[in-house]
Each structure stands twice: as C-alpha cells, then as structure tokens.
Design a protein that fits this description.
Length: 192
Amino acid sequence: MEETPNNLLAKELWCSCSSALEWWNVTQTYNHSTAVMSIIGYIIGLGDRHLDNVLVDLSTGEVVHIDYNVCFEKGKNLRVPEKVPFRMTPNIRSALGLTGVEGVFRTSCEHVLKVLRRGRETLLTLLEAFVYDPLVDWTPGSEGGYTGAVYGGRQAWAIEAKQTRQSMEMDIALSMFAIRVAEMKGEWLKNR
C-alpha cells in the first residue's frame, strides 16, 4: 500500500480551478475557513477529526466540520487518546500554500481568537448551556459520551447504571468547562 501524497489536497484545489486568480481566491478561502474551523474546534474541544468528518468544497475552498459527538475534550478519553488541539496533517498544511501555517492561516487564527474574545460574554453564555444541559448521546444502543469512552464504548450497562452515568457526565462536563474557562480567562481579561 502506498503512502498518500502530501500535496493531494493542494493538487485537487488547483485542478478544480480554471485560472490562477480563481486558484488564489480558493486557496485564500481555504486558509480562512481552515483557521476558523480549527480555532472553534479547539475552543469547544472538538475531537474525532478524520476524513469523514472534515469536508472540503473544492470549488470554493470552504472547510466544514461535521459530527460533533466528540467535543468538550471527550477525545482525550478515547481508547486511543487525541493529543493535538486540531487536525493539521501534511496534506492540510500543503494546501495552505507557500507560507503554510505562518501566513494567512496564522493571521486568520489570530483574528478568530480576537473576535471570540470580544464576544466572550455571548460565547460563555452559549457554552454555559452545556453545563446545565450536557450533550447526550443519540446513538441507539451505545454507551457513548465520556463514560463510554472511558469504559471502551458500546458497552451495555444495566438500567440502574443510567443514573450513575448521567451524574458522571454532568460532573465531567462541569469540570471540563471550568478548566477551559480557567485556561482562557487570562487572555480574555488582557484584551478587555
């Protein structure tokens, strides 16, 4: 089996364009879109980013993330824990262009963080909803979420364990939210 070329996505973006100007615009959109999705994914602790969960519109360069079941740092509790803040593979990096992560991508990331800091009260209000009403796993017959990840997922539990699971989910969600707010609080206060 051959290794996937590092420039596969960059070539696809290039081949989908009919002119150099169109390619430039698509690449710029790809840089901005990748930055936005990366930073927002980092803020909400989005994990499980693989080829089926990151969609790229080759005609516009827009990047869309789908499947938000693994968020609020659930990925760190999987059997194979996720250790990176967002997905930045050689293929994704190559499609950013000559400057890679140090060009438009970086300035876009900085801009997204500034916007989120300015709107921190709104963001915290939205995220606070998850503290009082944590995400539920809608997958029928599976024990997903934090406890499912910790205990190997898809493990059938007895009915009386459901209350314990819900209580654990709430405790973990509250602690993860508190940690995330504590991490970001200093930077937010600096940028008042």
